[in-house]
């Protein structure tokens, strides 16, 4: 073929171009996914991984000649592009991305396979990468923030966003973008082409909602199906405008001001709240009614936006006790478009509180005259003062003696009359300037509290007596000790415990601080024995944390005791060790119990034997007297008493000598002495009782208490006769005691006794 001839072959969707590049040379190119014109291969970008055929080189010399080979040089030769040396096929070996490199320039040549000598001149050609839609739109500057005034009209622009697409904007629609809103409706809208965001809803109020989040989407391929998309966010903030009036939190404010409040001092605060922010929320305050005298003024605190009410003129409780003001709050910034100016009013009621004011003199200066020869106690003049308070307290007057050092004048404390105290001499002093003070009569209760100082030393909370078991273990807590202090420091008590210096290294005991103002006393060993030492004295020094610190030495008594295996104290006396070693404590207790039981049985036996031998009823008709017997059963109303021995009076005629007392056991025994013999006609009971009384008073063995003995014997030959209830005018056989059974359970036993007596007599 000639150099200017070219032949194009296209079959089955593939294009082939044969271009003559020199005489006797021919380039054949076939593209599986592209086409070739002139000396250019066009290939769509691909991502691999399999190699793809770009085209084929062919020369007229390749007519079965096996001695030729194709070589490739240029951009990407050997790395991105490879050529089959035998067939001339060119393949793309790696991923081709138009966004990285759009075209490659290469050189092809045919050489001798044996000598590598060129058989044809090199031919240059271009491989162009054709774009496909493989890149989504991106918002490089996102996310976005924008602001717009609240209450803006519909269509007001907010901001504009921009997305970019890396695909070829010239070829196809791969880079043609369309914008839309995914989130943020119905508040905002966006132009699909210009990407301008606008207000879509009327009346957007910042006080209701201040911030909005809008999601914007950009889609390529003109927004058609199959296009790629990217999103971004736009945070839209509504800025404030002055569209809200100030509003007082209360419609009525009440303040109580003392009448002695200084001028310029604040007397109260009011506040009007504004839902706007910044400059739009600032308000100014003014008094529009109720202050005809100009007593008050109000100004705005720039930090808190409060209205501070303060005094311009002094208050007087006696003149006017209350004021009612109307205060107005107005926005400092005014926007005609918002319908302002905005304002609000509130009522302020001020109550004047009476203060204790000093007395006021009728004049600030008094000029009085007196003759120099005036006698003492002459009234020179009178000063008057009154209490301006509503209470009208009495006023007392005094002369300031610093202005009357010579005490030439006196003043009546009640009425203010100034009198002469010493004679005056005009030639010595022509003028005397004195100061008079007026004071109210008032009283106050003054409570004087005596403050505590650290003047008491701490001491043990109680008199401790500790018990230590002989079988105790080393380190065992013997006693927990705490202290008390009569002082009451503000910071509270803290006690420090320590042993006296001479006991620091003692081998028996130590102390441990419990960190709660108490200590534990511990044993150092387990070899304590009562035979060796029964009692230990442990002196402990307790110091408080006062200024200066006070301390005292307290002694803890520790007794060594015998304990059970469980540690229960059983005996602390050393005499316990005198007992036989072979007997246990339980055996000793059992033996003692048996001995006590035997003694009780013996005593009961003797007592019963003695009562059995004594007759219950006296058979001698002439010797009838009271005999009180105690029964275990409750009798018919009588109270049980201790039986007493009446043997002394049973036979007064035969009594001789001394009868020992039975209420005590005497330590000393006295020899009986001859008794007083009665006359031939009987016993002188009165003399007998006096003798016995004298013996009882002089008896050293008598107890230190009175012993009362009652005798029912009236004496032989008494006219009154016997007072015994056991002897009556009738005989025993005439008495019927059946009525005792009818008296109830209390007299049942007595009735049985008398019934038995009757049956015995019958038999």
What would you say this structure looks like, in words?
GO terms for molecular function: beta-catenin binding; cadherin binding; calcium ion binding. It is a single-pass type I membrane protein. This is Cadherin 8. Pfam families: CADH_Y-type_LIR, Cadherin. The chain is built from four helices and 42 strands. The longest helix is centred in the last third of the chain and has 29 residues. Strand 23 and strand 24 form a beta hairpin. The strands form twelve sheets. It has a five-stranded mixed β-sheet, with no helix packed on it. Strands 35, 37, 40, 41 and 42 form a five-stranded mixed β-sheet that branches. With 763 residues, it is mostly beta strands. Among the domains are: 92 residues, Sandwich (Immunoglobulin-like), CATH 2.60.40; 102 residues, Cadherins (Immunoglobulin-like); 107 residues, Immunoglobulin-like, CATH 2.60.40.60; 92 residues, Cadherins (Immunoglobulin-like, Sandwich); 107 residues, Immunoglobulin-like (Sandwich).
